[in-house]
Amino acid sequence: MAAHEIRRAEPADYDDVIVVVDNWWGRAMVDKLPRMFLDHFHRTSLIATDEAGISGFLIGFGSPSDDLTAHIHFVAVRPDARKFGLGRTLYDEFFALSRDDGRKIATAITSPSNYTSIDFHRSLGFTVAGPVRNYNGPGRSQITFERPI
Ligand SMILES: CC(C)(COP(=O)(O)OP(=O)(O)OC[C@H]1O[C@@H](n2cnc3c(N)ncnc32)[C@H](O)[C@@H]1OP(=O)(O)O)[C@@H](O)C(=O)NCCC(=O)NCCS
């Protein structure tokens, strides 16, 4: 894997992240990442950079209602940096910081059509369930992921 620096996010990273999400997902995703995620969850979110700038990010948080659970809301790697282990490294770093916070379980969700995400999470040892019908409201099924950390 090329050299990537991974650090905790800061609120100001939002401006760099939000301009790449649609391109990195290949569809409109900006509405799913309002600024509040970086304002309030930057301590548990991660930014990867290389000589070309931002190369990946993970937006995650410890559940305020369930002391044992850490949830990953968004993860993405710049298209040219994929399949070299950066996504796995971002998760490993998130698991480590979450364990330091006393978390024991990691969860995430994705849309049933995101086969890359499903394969990625399965490769990382997550249990894959669903599609869970109406998970996010009528007609909005989701795949759910969970693993111990
Ligand atoms: C999902 C994503 C973050 C993976 O990042 P990555 O850096 O390419 O992943 P890694 O190289 O660390 O791969 C980790 C594992 O996932 C698997 N994997 C990654 N991409 C895959 C793909 N397209 N198809 C099948 N498996 C894949 C790898 O084979 C690897 O498994 P292994 O270690 O057993 O060989 C990246 O493809 C991405 O940014 N996609 C667009 C955004 C997205 O859909 N995010 C997830 C939903 S929030």
From TrEMBL:
PROSITE patterns from the UniProt entry: GNAT
InterPro entries per UniProt: AcTrfase_GNAT_prd, Acyl_CoA_acyltransferase, GNAT_dom
Pfam families (UniProt xref): Acetyltransf_1
Gene giving rise to this polypeptide: yqjY
Gene Ontology MF terms: acyltransferase activity, transferring groups other than amino-acyl groups
PANTHER family linked: N-ACETYLTRANSFERASE, RIBOSOMAL-PROTEIN-ALANINE ACETYLTRANSFERASE
Protein name: N-acetyltransferase domain-containing protein
Transmembrane segment boundaries: none
Domain N-acetyltransferase, first and last residues per copy: 4-149
